[in-house]
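User: structure tokens for this one?
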Amino acid sequence: MSHVKAGGTAKNVHNNAGQRLGVKRFGGQKVKAGEVLVRQTGSTKLSGEGTYMSRNFTIHAKKDGIVTFVKTKKSHFSGKSVPRVRVEVR
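Assistant:
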């Protein structure tokens, strides 16, 4: 015979802060070198000319300029091509 009453399940107990992902500088905006352009999990957007991608897939501006977003196709190893957005600074 048990000596402890059954503990119920806890619901709605997770209280995590959001990761604040998304586009931080939009097309046509002036940026300086090093500014964060896009915060993302995984490479949903690609880094193009004038940008670089850090270890956590954040896209930064490599130089001063104006942000542009270009639609491109990226091919997978299997040969399937998927649409992606490439972030550039010109």
